[in-house]
Amino acid sequence: MGRIAVVGAGIVGCSCALFLQRDGHDVVLVDPREPGAGTSKGNAGIISCSAITPLATIETLRGVPAMLRDPMGALSIRWRHLPELLPWLVRFCIASRSRTVESSTVALAALLQHANQAHDIVIQQAGLGDLVRGGGWLKVAYDRKRLDRYMASIRRYYDRFGVVYHMLDREGCLDLEPALNPEIAAGVLIADCRAVRHPQDYTGGIARAVMERGAEHVRQTVRDIERADGVVKTVITDAGKLAVDGVVLAAGAFSGALARMSGAPVPLIAERGYHLMLPHPAVTLNNPVYTVEGSFVVAPMTHGLRLTGGVELASNAAPPDYARIRRLIEPARRLVPGLTATVDDAWQGHRPSLPDSLPVVDRAPALRNFWYAFGHQHIGLTLGPLTGRLVADLVAGRQPLVDLAPFRARRAFC
């Protein structure tokens, strides 16, 4: 193939670069920021192979009014941006139909069963073993009935697709995480999840590995492409033109414009997420902990505890609003008594989301040398390495590890 430009240097783009380079391609990462400095920086660090159910379900829709009324709820909407968001929201509602939930779950489960194996390849290739820890992901509740309701909608899928989980009583939760509040009534340990202790360093480590093997990093924004006879010839950046033999679009929530240019006007928006870093928490956790009542995660990092939670729907260009994530400090201190709430870093990022919760992994409909790798919603870290492997298969003309029909760019988005 020759020289391939990967647009976007997050976990998905850097993973694409690694697997393409393994196939012998010259790779150019094109991103104005350092690798991993965007949305890949701020997640909870969970390799979540249990995330097999889509976001759009009847249960989610039923919970929306309560979430919007609650100032600490899991969802907020900037109402002045509603006209811009409305077409996506309508599709999201339609995607909650049972048959769409079923097909999306089957598709996600097919991807996620291979996610850990792809991470193992990346960890070995880039020497990142020190950043990843096993042990699972603990979800807890103060009310056992609340946990039972939470599990009711997903337990059948866990059982059907072989997700390994263990229901725990109070003592079981405290045995795993002694720092938790003893008022916790019950929990569930998702056993096959792993934790990345510094997500930005994880992505940066992948980028460093490919650059040590000859890849370039062009710190520019891609504005356009030049094509001839169904083939991209040139990528146009702020600094000028870059001759290429192929392009992979992995720019996350900012992929929409180039997707349209290449023949795929997908309904992509950003679910805006926030985190706070607590660098001197005075207590420790062994693994990430999610609270069902609060819908937030407290995750151990190499540099403290990270508090993440909630989805904000707004324009990509809207300024951050950190008030909501700061309101979670007190619930976090209830969950982890003794937590010192000194905040070192408040962060906001953009989760690239499509109404059916499935990413786009495909070749452009009108261009033979342009491929898509975006739209991974809340599981970009989890699926980044696998997406890199799948894109390399597409570029090489190999049979992909997974049937990619559900992830094509021109599917019916409800």
Automatic annotation (TrEMBL):
InterPro entries: FAD-dep_OxRdtase, FAD/NAD-bd_sf. Residues 3-394 form the FAD dependent oxidoreductase domain. It comes from the Bacteria. Signal peptide: none annotated. Keywords: Oxidoreductase. Pfam families: DAO. The keyword rRNA-binding does not apply. The keyword Oxidoreductase applies. This is D-amino-acid dehydrogenase. One of its GO terms (molecular function) is oxidoreductase activity. PANTHER family: GLYCINE OXIDASE (PTHR13847:SF289), SARCOSINE DEHYDROGENASE-RELATED (PTHR13847). One of its GO terms (cellular component) is cytoplasm.
